[in-house]
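A favour between colleagues. Tell me how you read the following sequence-structure pair.

===
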Amino acid sequence: MKKIIIPILILMLLPLLFACSNENTVETGKDGDFFVYATIEKIEKTTIEVLMAENQDAYGAYLINVYDGTEYLDPYGNEISKSDFKAGDKISITYNGQVTKSLPPQITALKIQKQ
């Protein structure tokens, strides 16, 4: 009897393990790129230090690498310059999903948009 009850209990409880999942709040755009929300802390020539919004899987201090191909947009989607951004600005960052394991973690921005 014990040989039958234990496997039945395991089979009954197994779906509960898969039902409990961590809701991913790093969003994915329609083109497959990822984006997160952050506040700019400091702007350098090739990097932007940000503090990720706390309601995301990615949170805390991050270093955003920018390059010549990074797009900079205002809240309406119009192209602007990197110099139009300043510390304290709320932004969304579009990236390819890759995050380094360094401290602070780093991502390379494809697009940065003011919120």
In short: Residues 2-19 form the longest helix (18 residues). The domain at 24-114 is CATH 2.40.50.320 (OB fold (Dihydrolipoamide Acetyltransferase, E2P)). The chain is about 15% helix and 35% strand.
